[in-house]
Protein 1
Amino acid sequence: MSGYGRWIDDSGLPAFALRTGPPPPAWNRVIDPPTRRRWVHLGNRRLTLVADTDGRCGLWDEHKDLRWLTEPEPQGTGVSQVHDGESVLLTSARAEGHDPRIVFGPTYLRVGTESADLAMQRTVTVPEGEDPFVRIQVVVTNRRAESVCWTLSEEWDVRQRVLDYLEIGARTQRPAYEGGETLRLEGPGAVAEGAQGLLRVELPLELGPGQRESVHFRFGLAVASGGHTSTPPIADPELLRRRLPEAAADQAPQAAREIPWHAALLTGGACADGVLGGHTLDQSSAYSFRHGFNGAARDPLQHALPLVHTEPDLALSVLRNTCAWASPEGELPYALDNMKQPRTDLFQPSDQNLWTLWLAAEYAAATGDLAAFAQPAPFHPVHKAEQVPLQEHLRRQFRWFKDVVGTGEHGHVRILNADWNDLALDEAGIDRQTMIDHGESVLNSAMAAWVLPVYAGLAQRLGDLPTAAEARSYGEELRVRVAGEWNGRWFRRALGPGGAQVGEDSLWLEGQPWAILCGAATDVQARQLLSTIDELLRKDAPLGARLHWPPKADGMGGHWYAINATLIWAAARIDPALAWDEWRRMSLSAHTEAYPGLWEGTLSGPDAYLPPESERPGQTWVLPDLGVAMQAWPVANQHSHAQPLLAYLRLLGVEPTRDGRLAVGGGAHFSSRFLTVRPDGSGRLRGNGTLAVTARDGRRYDGQGEVAWGEFTGG
C-alpha cells in the first residue's frame, strides 16, 4: 500500500487518489532545495501539465525550444477561489490547515474541497490531440439554506522561460522570467493575456439554496484561441478509454491498470515539433526539465517502439522527427540542445543508428505501411540539405553505422566514446582514449546482430535488395563474433587492443539479452546465462535485475528500465516464468510494495533506480561532481512508461521478424485499436497496407488492411 494514496477506477480509467491529511515531509533533490511537493506529468501531443500534490500545476511546451510556459518553482499555479466580497471562502489548492481531495487521472487533475457553506470541484484536463492549452471545469455548490451572491476567480501565475543548455549544479539564484509567448486565460465573458505575471479572471455566481453551477475556463497559448466559447467541451472519458490499450494477465494482475496508465503518460510526453516536423518524444525527467537538453537520439526511438502497436501514426511521426536530427551522411547527434540544435560535445555514441532501423522495421511489420518510406523527410536545418525519402534516410544511417562506425581489430563494432552506456568507458578499467581509438563493443555487435537482419526484411520489402543482402550478411558476421565472446558463464562486454577484455570477471547485463535474441547463445548457454543472471543480478532485488556484478551501489549497479526490458524479452523465449517475474518487478506495484514512502515509482519514475545495497535504495542516481542528478526530477522519464509497455508485448510474443512479418504469440491479453492478442494465441491486426502475421503455431496469415488468426471472433 502506497504511503501517498491508492489506485481507483475513475469512470473506467485508472487514476490515483491521494490520501487526505497533511502533506508528506520534504524530500532531498540533491542539487535543488528540498520540497514537500510531488508531481506527475500528464499531457497530449503538444503540452505537458505538471500536476502536483498541492493541486497546483506547471505547463511545459517543447514546440520550438525547451520552454516552461509557467515553471512550477518554487510552487505550482492554477488556482480557483470563491469570494464573498470580503474574504476568500474557499480555495482549490492546498493551504495551511486546508487539505483538498486530489485525484491524478491519465490526462487530468481533479481537486475537490469543501466547507460548511460550499463545495468546489476543479478539473484541469489536457484535451486529446495537439491543442496547446488546458481546459478547466469548476463546479461550485451552495450548501447554505439561502441564496448567495459570490465571485469565482481563476488565476495562473505565468513564470515563462526557456531553459539554458546544460543547466547543471545547484541553483544559487532565482531564474529570470522575461518576455516569451503570449498566454491567454479565458472564462465566460472575461479574458486575461500576458507573457509573464499573474493572469486572473472573475465572474459573479448567484446560487440558490443547494444550487450547483459549472464554469469553464481555458488556459494556454493565445495563438490557439479562435474566439471564446462560454462552455468549452470537456473531454469525454470514452474517447480516452478507446484510445488507451487494455491488458489482462493472470501472471501479472497489475497489468490491467498499469498498461493503459503507461500508454497515457507515454503519449502525454509527445510534442508537435515546430522546428523539425513530426513529434518529439524525449526522455524528459531531469534531462529536459532540469538540465535543458533532449538526449540521446536513441531514446525517442525506443519510446516510440510500443506506440507502433497502440498509436502507430505517432510512432511514425517520432521516427521522422528523429531522422531529422541527422546529417545527410547519416550521423545522428547525441542530443539536441535547448534550442533544438544538434550537439556532439557530450558524446558520439556508436549505437544510435540501430534504434532508427529497429523502429522502422517494427513499424512496417505492424502496419504494412510501406508507402510511408517513400515520403520525403528532412535533415536538420543546419545542414541546408534537400529532403530525401524516409527509406533513403534509413539506408544512409545503415551506411554510417557500417562504414563510419565500423569494426575494430577483433571484428566487433567500435565503441567510440560511448555505446548505450554513456559511462561504459569510465567503468571499463582501460585507458579512456585507448578505448575511444581502438575499443570494441560486444553489446553493439550483439544488438546489431538482431537489428540488421530485421532491417534487411524491411529493405527487401521496399525493393532495396543489395542493402538487404548486405545488412543480413553483416548481422550474421557479428552474430558469429558475439558467439565467440562466451566465457563459460556470460558474454564479455567489450574489447580493447592487445587482448584487453572488459567483462571477463564481471557480469555486465546490457549485452546478455541481445546475445540470446540474436542467436549467438546456444540453447544450453542461454539457459545457463539466465540462471547466472537470476543468481547474481536478481537476488534480493525487488525491482529486478541489477546492471552489474559484483554489485555497485551507484547507478552503474542499479535497475535500468531499458535493459531489463530486453532481459524480459530474451527470457520469454527460454524461461517465461522468470520473464513474467522480471516484468512484475519492473511494475509500479513492485516499487510501491518495496518502497511505499517514495514518490518516484508510484505513478512514474526515472530511467533507473538505485539497488538495495545503495544508501538510497529505490531512489535514483546523482553525479555530484558533474552537477547532474536524476534525483532532482525523478519522475516523467519516458523509459519508465515505454519499457513496461514494450516488455509486455514481447511477453505475448509480439515482435518483427527477419522476413518483414509480425510474430505474435499469446499467454495473456492485449488490445488496442490496432492489435489484439488473446491468451489462446488468437488475435487481429489492423493497418493500412499489406499485413503479414506469423502466429505462435507457425501458421502465416496475410491480408490487406486487416488480418485475423486463430479462433478470433469479433471484439
Protein 2
Amino acid sequence: MRLILRVEPVHRVAPVSAPPGPGVHVVYATGTGELFSLGGRALTSSEQVSTRYRMRYDVDTADHRIVLRLEGEPYPVEVGFRVHDPLAVVRNAVEDPEPIIGAFLRARGIDRGFRDEIRLPEGITVFSVEPQLPPAQHGRAEVWEQWEQEVVEARIGNVPGGAVRSSPPSGDLERFLIGELPTSVRVGQEFSLVARIAVDKPWPGASAAPLVGFPTGPDEVEVVLLVQPRSGLRGEDLQATVRVPADGGSAPVRFGLRAHEVGLLRLELSAWIGGTALAELTLEISAEPAAVDERTQHRRAPMSELASRPGDVTLQVSFDGSRYLFQIASSRYWSEQIVARSLTEAPGQAVERTVDMLRRFAGGQAAYGPAAARRWVQETGVGLWRDMVPDAIKDAFWELRGQIGTFTIACADDSVPWELLYPLARAEDHGFLVEQFPVLRRVFGTLSAQTVSVDHARYIVPGRSPANAREEAAAVHRILAGGAEPAYVTHLDDLMAVLDGPDVGLLHFACHNAFSLQQGGSAIAMEGGAFVPLMLNSAVQRRRFADRHPLVFVNACRSAGVAPEYTRMMGWASQFMLAGAGAFVGTLWPVGSARAAGFAEAFYAELTAGAGLGTASLRARQAIADPGDPTWLAYTAYGDPTATISRAV
C-alpha cells in the first residue's frame, strides 16, 4: 500500500487545489525544501499564486490493518497503524509502511498485544499487534503462554519503569532525549511539550519512565530538563529535574506553553547535569490564527554519558521577542531564568558603544597611551557587565567563581561581545572574564564534539589578503604537519569543492572579512566571487561536517591604512557549527595582521601539545596580550572547552 497518495507541483495559474478528502492530510514543500502542513488544509487562492509553495503531497492518515509474516516467528501478525506525522512521512519519503513496521516488530518482539500506542520517527503510529493463531489452536492458552514467556522474554528484557531494551543490561546504555508536542496550535491556546529520557534503542518511541516517586539511590542521577522558547512563545516553570536510574529512563515531564503570534515558532529542549549539557533538541510548532488539527510530533536526540565535568559552568542567554532571559548552570547551583529588564529598555546601546570603541582601536584612531587604552577597554567591559547582566546572575557568578574551571556561553543573540565582559564588585576584581579561565561559546542546537579534526588542512588565502597571510598559513602548517607544502585555496569554486568533498578537515582562513548588507552580511572576497554564510545552507541542512568535526579558524585581519569594519563573525560561527564543525575560532573585530598571526601560531602550538580547546585559546590570548592593543580580546571560540585535536592514524 502507499501512504503518499498524490504528489503534484503547485501551479500558480491553475484552479485552486481541491481540499483533501477524509483521512487525507496535505503537506506542502517550499522551494528550499521546508515542509508545512497548514493544519492539513489545502492552499487558499492567495497562497497558491504566491511563489512560496512548490509541491503538494497528499498523505493517507486513516486507520489501517495489515497482516505481516516475520522471519523467525511461528505465526503471522495483524498490525493496526495510522500516520500521526504527515510531515515525517514526506520527509522520509515513506511510500510503503510494511518494511518500517516489520523492522520495528523484529526489534521489539511480539507479545499478546500493545497496551499503548507506539510512535515511530517515520511518522507512523502502531496501535495494535495481534498474532494470528490457527483456528485449531485458539484454545491452547497454555501453549501460547509458554511460547510468549520463552520467546518474548528471551528477546526483550523488562527494565525498571516499563522501558524495554533489545539487549541485556550493560554499563554502556544508549539514551535519548525525547520531546513530543503538537505540529500546530491556535494562537493563545495552551499546549503541552512532553519531555523524557528514554533508555537504549529497542524501537523508536518506546516508553522509559521509572516508578513515580522512586527514591534517589546510589545508582541514580538527577538530570535537569530545560525548555527555552524563542520569539513568539511563552511559558512558566520551564525547568524540571528528573531521576534517571543506571539501567532505565526518566518519568515524562509536561511543560505548558502558549503561542502569542502567528508563524513557525521554535524552542530548545535540553538535558543537563550540573553545567554540562548532555543533549539538545530544537523543536518547531506552527501557530495558526484559527482552530487546528492537533497531531503530535515526536523528536529525539542522542545523549552523551550521564556525567558532569567538575568546574563546568554555562551561562545561557535567550530572547523571547521582547525580553532577554539569563540562566547560569553548574553542578553546585542552577539559577532561575532571570529577566534583564535593562536590556528590554535599550538592548543595543551597550553593544553599540563597545563596537564604536573597537572600531577606533582597529583603525588606530584612539589617541591614548598604553595605560589609558587599557583603562578605556576595561571601563567598557565593566559597563557591559553592569548594563547587560542581571544582578541575580552576578551574585551567582561570584558565588561560583572559585569553582569555575571552564565557562561556556550559550546565546542566540551573538551580537554581544561577551569576551569583553569585566566582572567587578566592591571587593572583587580579577580582570576580564576571558583572562580568568577558558571562555567558549556554544551555538544553540549543537552539542560540541570531544575531538576536532585538523587533517587534510586547507588554507584559504584570497588574493587581497593581508601581506603576511601566506607566512601565517605556512607557520601554522609547519606546526601541524612539519615541512610539507600547505594546500592553498584562493578561488571560490575550489573552496566550494572542498566543502562538498568527502575529506573536509582543518579550514584556516587568513583574509579580510567585511560586513555588507548587499552581500547578505559577512563576506570574504575571493577569486570567482564572495564567500558568504548563506553558501553553507546545504551543509547545515545535511550536517555535512558531522562525521569529521573539522576545526574552522577565520582569522580576519586588516592591512595598514584600510578603513576597518566590524566583522560580525557570528554568522560564520553559527553556520559552520550547525553544519557539524567540531570548533570555530574567529575575531569579533578587525585585528592587526602581526598579532593575528601570533595568536594563531600560539593557539595551534598549544593544541598540538595536547591542550584542550579552552586552554589553548586562553594561552594564545596570554601570548599576545598588550595593554595598548585589545587584539587579545578580539578572539571568540566555539566548541567544547576540553575538546582536543585528532589526527588520522
